[in-house]
Amino acid sequence: MHFIIGFLFIFSTPLWAKTYSITGNEKTKTHYIERLLFKCEEEQTTLKKLEQCLLNSRLFSEVNIKEVDQKIIVDVKDRWSIIPFPSIKLKSDGKKSYGFFIFDGNFLGMGTLFGVGGSYSNTSSSYVLFYQDKSFLLTNWTMGFSTGRNNADIYLKTKALKVKDAFHEKTSHTTFSLGYSFSNQLNIEGSLMERFSTYEIIDNYTLLQEFRSTIAKIKATWKNEEYKFYFSDGIRLTSSFDKEIYRTDESSKTRSFNFNFIAGKETFNKQAIQWTINTTVVNANDKRDSLKSSSGKQSSARGLRGIPEGSYLASSLFTTSFDYQIPLRFTKYGTWTFAPFFDFGKINIFEHKTVDLWQKAYGLGSYFFLKGIMLPGIGFIVGRNETFNTGFAELSIGESF
């Protein structure tokens, strides 16, 4: 144990050198704020940029830094981080989802993420517990753990939304991760996940074989962005590769690759354009390993908004989306925005790898982004999916993990 702790400190940056006078923090530990300031000092040279760097941690609703008599005073206001909240989603297709979660984005005042909760819908249920330490032992190392279970009816439908295949899937998973932050911009993380999937028959469709597998994953994240509460100004790139290293059935081991690009830019009058690109490729051997559309509901993911349940079992996805956030009102509690959006994508169908499903959707959204707590509050979207010739609407209260 002593060797592990010594190894982590050897490959971490030295302890902070400057002394600050820190005030206003009620939950966040002073020594953790000093740790954040030390990391910010490496890249920021002005007090204004230092303020923004602390805001980027998403721990504070306000940060004010000033120099008085050659002394640097840092005054912060903690965001409310312990959040017991409901997750309620009502869809225009009649699907309903209810859940309850407890989330702490500043667990023990050390910027650690902790969450537990579950949700239930007409055709699925799930629970999750996770823990992520962004500064393990006050070093540049990160450490995480998560476990969860998902039960869902999986349907595959034609473009006319007639069922042509179905199965019930129960999947449980446990994941351990360890990463290293080279700077506030670059993080590399490795993880191992143990997964167990079982299946049940729906109607007279084929019964699938249960299996257990172990998956190794490597993920790299680079970001250069400033957090503005209702959007992030800048760029974030995430790339990951995972591979099954153990599997109990006779199918060959799967591999998958994911790339995600998120960009935001303030235009004028504090309006902002947001652009996302996401691509995922998996060498699925059968439908158990394919990329599945949302279960029991229309998709609300950017790039895939309005896609009905059971639209695809895919071997690859490419999606892009544009959102334009127009602030309608700023209050001390948060920001209310109006946001037109457009989604476009290409979905490569697993069963016929030469057949593509082209996704196109557009619509309007309205959101209230809460400033004092760590999660969005209320969101409403309405739109039309041209691919399936259907309209869709969604009201969300709370945010599921």
Strand content: over 45%
Mean pLDDT: 86
| The CATH H-level homologous superfamily of the largest domain | membrane protein fhac: a member of the omp85/tpsb transporter family
Major beta-sheet overview: 16 strands, antiparallel, barrel
H/I helix tally: 3
Number of strands: 20
CATH topology group of the largest domain: Porin
Strand sequence of the main sheet, in spatial order?
A: 4-5-6-7-8-9-10-11-12-13-14-16-17-18-19-20
> Which geometry do the CA atoms define?
globular
Ranges with pLDDT <50 over ≥5 residues?
Answer: 1-5, 7-17
Structural class from helices and strands? mainly beta
- In total, the number of domains comes to 2
Quickly name the level 1 CATH class of the largest domain.
Mainly Beta
The run of helices and strands is HEHHEEEEEEEEEEEEEEEEEEE
Q: Cα-atom Rg, whole angstroms?
A: 23 Å
Give a structural overview.
- This protein has 401 residues and is mainly beta.
- The chain has two domains: 77 residues, Roll (Ubiquitin-like (UB roll)); 316 residues, membrane protein fhac: a member of the omp85/tpsb transporter family (Porin, Beta Barrel), CATH 2.40.160.50.
- Helices cover 7% and strands 59% of the residues.
- The protein contains three helices and 20 strands.
- A 16-stranded antiparallel barrel has the order 4-5-6-7-8-9-10-11-12-13-14-16-17-18-19-20.
- Strand 17 and strand 18 form a beta hairpin.
- The two termini are 33 Å apart.
- The N terminus is likely disordered.
